[in-house]
Amino acid sequence: MSTDHTWLVVGLGNPGPGYAGHRHNVGAMVLDVLGARVGGSFKSHKARAAVLEGRLGVRPGGAPGPRAVLAKPATYMNESGGPVAGLSQFFKVDPAQLVVVHDELDIPYGQIRLKLGGGEGGHNGLRSITRSVGTKDYLRVRVGIGRPPGRMDAADYVLRDFSATERKDLGVTLEEAADAVEALAHEGLLAAQGRFHAPTA
């Protein structure tokens, strides 16, 4: 993959401390992990997002990874598209170099899945981004949160904190999702899918 491209990596969530631990905010949590790896701190950007510029990981042989803009929209989930479109224009990033990290109800808790394009599965953040950038053809790192138990409404489920049991493994899941973002930028989609979609023993 060329090192000339700048990647825009967006972690979805809702702003403010009241939402910080919710399942719906797992995308933003992954960005915090990536931010810690890059070093430095997120700063407010005029496109209504917290932004951190740096290099994504280290290439084989020790060279720094590709340039990346890490971003957490400062808007509510259903308005994520405006900041993403604004940052894409500001940093001149094509949809092919846009990676959106988000929670996914249809994947078991703790599993990571990668894909390009496709439907939004009722996810308001993805819907807003697709509308604003004008295409569904951007990369997604989907972090499984599982389906709600019993008759709990999905909207209530995503706006609750992870359970105590889930929180025991959450750190590992966030690190794996951060690894998946780096793999996408370093190796491309197919190679990264081969690594993260392999069944675990």
From TrEMBL:
Reactions catalysed according to its record: an N-acyl-L-alpha-aminoacyl-tRNA + H2O = an N-acyl-L-amino acid + a tRNA + H(+)
A UniProt-annotated Pfam family: Pept_tRNA_hydro
Site for Stabilizes the basic form of H active site to accept a proton, residues: 103
Keyword tRNA-binding: yes
Site, Discriminates between blocked and unblocked aminoacyl-tRNA: residue positions: 14
Keyword check for Manganese: no
Localization per record: Cytoplasm
Main location (coarse class): cytoplasm
Gene3D superfamilies per the UniProt record, alphabetical: Peptidyl-tRNA hydrolase
Keywords: Cytoplasm, Hydrolase, RNA-binding, tRNA-binding
GO molecular function: peptidyl-tRNA hydrolase activity
PANTHER family recorded: PEPTIDYL-TRNA HYDROLASE
Functional summary from the UniProt entry: Hydrolyzes ribosome-free peptidyl-tRNAs (with 1 or more amino acids incorporated), which drop off the ribosome during protein synthesis, or as a result of ribosome stalling.
The protein's name: Peptidyl-tRNA hydrolase
Lineage: Bacteria, Bacillati, Actinomycetota, Actinomycetes, Kineosporiales
Name of the coding gene: pth
